[in-house]
Amino acid sequence: MPRNFIGITMMPEWIQHEGIERTLDNLVHRAGATAVATSPYVMEPADEKTGSREPPIDAGAGSVRLLDRTLWGKRELFVRTAPSYAPKAELYRGLRYQPASPSDLTRKQGSIIKSFIRQAQARHLKVYLQVQAAIPPGYRVQFGGPQGDDKPALPDGRVPSVRLANNGSLASPHIIAYHCALLKDLVQAYPEVNGIRVDWPEYPPYFLDDVFLDFGPHAEAAATRLGFDFDRMRRAVGALYSKFHGGLKNADLLPWAEADGGRYRLLHLLKEEPLILGWLKFKALLAEELIAAFRKAMDEAGGKRIELVPNAFPPPWSLVSGLDFGRIGRHASAISVKLYTMHWPVMLRFYGDAILKANPGLDEKLLTRALVRWVDIADDAGLPSLRDYVYPEPDQAHPAGERAQTRKIVEAQIAAGTTPVYALAHGYGPLDDFRRRLAVAWQASRHGIWINRYGYLSDAKLEAVKQTCQRER
Fold it and tell me: What does the alpha-carbon distance between residue 245 and residue 232 come to, in Å, rounded to a whole number?
């Protein structure tokens, strides 16, 4: 069956800056898109004290990132946002988290989102709204975050000091209640949309500490309710955490650098410590319950016809993030699996730097080979040293193997069963490399692609989308 779904994420600032007609012309005529996603906010320029950097700085590593399309005359700037609509206060009454209040910016420019949805659908584009799954107030990833005991914790109770994704605990009733209220609000404010995409309904594993979440008080309550022995699970995962933070020897890494990628070693370790498998299943259940609650909230608000599409980390990261494609697929209309290949090298570097710091006697090159195997980002042995893995500059190709990218989408689709999996490619990077990665994503998914984001898509890249995908449409 020919693939005919081509979605592009276009954040509201581009609609404000370039105008509805120009952006839709670019989507439909230049790129040949069939769908667009935006978000329920509006934006304006700010300064460094009152705003956040656009593009996002990605915990400092992404400071090299620049926009392809100038926004208010700049390729990097500081911005602030306001909701594009007036949230219904009664939906949030009594909740720990409250939506952002409408401002003068809302009153002046908020209506542009309604107009954009209407005009995009008139051009036969499906329109989706994207919000965060576990970061109140949820409109945009850089703004907001969890409070107090809603922050996910490590096995020893500490909250990681450095995080890129400021997600709350998926077990927190406060996080769940707020985001369910937000989805109800959006369904009622924008009943005409085709779907809602929720980003990061998982524990995004950007740093090594992120992998070992979540052992906070809400997770403990959920584990008891779901029949898990929380204390034994915490001790087992804590022992694994300690192994990575001072207990690793070169001999421990050798099996992972072998031709089988350490599969036998992995199965042996899990056989000896089944509580680790239980912990992974526990996180998967938390993510499933979150998505099930979202679906129920949308249905209750009159949005049964509106699609629910989670964005997800690809395998094998999904195993530790908690995103089980089969479980999520029971409640989702489709799943977008991220091929954010500019993040992959810096994630590997984050892991490697943390492990080397805690285990100074390790062979760096051996560790690098093991990490490349663990996260499966190369078609060969990968780059030789941790120093080689950095956030790509705007004109640098992303060090990600084509077969590795394909494997991630194929594995996700097999796990998701009949639920469609879209490959979610990223526009950041040079034109030729974008074209290569786009072709991989298009071929890997049986159902189509999403591309993130319009601000990284020059006119030449938009045209590359149409050229790459038009033969099968």
Answer: 20
